[in-house]
Amino acid sequence: MRQVPGRKGQTAVEYLLTTLLLVTFFVGLYGFLHQQVRKMFILGGIKILMMYD
Predict the structure, then answer these.
(1) Residue ranges covered by each domain of the chain
(2) How many C-beta neighbours within 10 Å does residue 10 have?
(3) pLDDT tens for residues 1-53?
(4) End-to-end CA distance of the chain, in Å?
């Protein structure tokens, strides 16, 4: 089979872009979920403290 010139470079760029996209997605998702869990813990702590008030 004959190789197309530049195909290895294109594949490498596609892998790099895909990796960058996935890393960005997971970092954003982690940040969002981190904030949501933090808010839930704060609300839970407030409810617990209100019971002893």
Answers:
(1) 28-53
(2) 10
(3) 566 666 878 899 999 999 999 999 999 999 999 999 999 999 999 999 998 86
(4) 78
